[in-house]
Amino acid sequence: MVVLSPCFAAAGLCVLSAVETVTATPVARQSGFSLLLSNDDGWAEANIRALYEEATTAGYEVLLSAPAENQSGTGSTSVEPTPLTEPGEFDSIPAGSPAEGHNTTDDHIWYVNAHPVDAVQYGVQNLSSTYLGGAPSLILTGPNVGSNLGIVTQFSGTVGAASEGVKLGIPAIAFSGSGGSERSYTELAAGDYSFIYAQASLRLADALVNSGASPLLPSGTALNVNYPDAGAGTDCASADDFKFVLSRVYSVLGLPVDVTTCGSSSLPTESSVVGTDGCYASVSVFNADSKLDAGKSAQQAVLDSLSGILTCLPS
């Protein structure tokens, strides 16, 4: 598969360099299921483009709407989109381009020169009816470059973007990976960590899609998923190596306040899951408004939906 570098209708610019990418094995899915992708690292960052390619190859209807620049740490803040006064991320957008625009070779890839929250709003409210035939079935944000654990979730644009999706009535999952660094998608190479994170994210999304749950996630909640390092020389050399564990964002010092699973009524924290040797990924259910842990009933619903993919930490 070949990924073309950015082309822009507004500027009449098309750069025809390309990179070879890995082709994923298609995943099972519900017919007509659509995804909106966003992030806070920017529309031209490697991780989100890898996820776009993998999801498209798998047969999902996919729309990408993400910030024109790295907007990490903007949380749930919003600003008015404005025309670009300087070139966009990795020189992917010419200075003087409009506040919103798309790749001319693929009009399902959009930038919004504002914050992650604004990119999600624009994708849902202005783009999805045209490019997805209606509201997206699920929003996936990330995979973020770097973990989003504990208190950091309050400031994460990736988590903020997922939260915004829920506020707009769309179920959402925020993904973050501790490995790698911010880079252009033109640097993607077959089998590297960006594709591993993308494929693992689709494993989880597909499990949720095919769970039969309706709604996909409990009202007012989203999932926060964190991965350890991935790629050659790590415990996570492929997407199939990841073992997903139901977790919580904040510690409650062992108090039995959570759903009962794995022999305990106190879920492990995200940090403890990701820090366990053996390629464990954390899956936390959080309230989209407060970004605090959701209650037992919401945890139970997710546990039931993802029972086929969730596991326990080693004793």
Automatic annotation (TrEMBL):
Organism of derivation: Heliocybe sulcata
Keyword annotations from UniProtKB, A to Z: Hydrolase, Metal-binding, Signal
Transmembrane intervals: none
The protein, known as: Sure-like protein
Domain Survival protein SurE-like phosphatase/nucleotidase span(s) in chain numbering: 36-230
Residues in the signal sequence: 1-24
Entry GO MF terms: metal ion binding; nucleotidase activity
Family: Belongs to the SurE nucleotidase family.
Keyword Manganese belongs to the record: no
Start-end of Polar residues biased regions: 68-80
Classification of source organism: Eukaryota, Fungi, Dikarya, Basidiomycota, Agaricomycotina
Classification via InterPro entries: SurE, SurE-like_Pase/nucleotidase, SurE-like_sf
Pfam families associated with the record: SurE
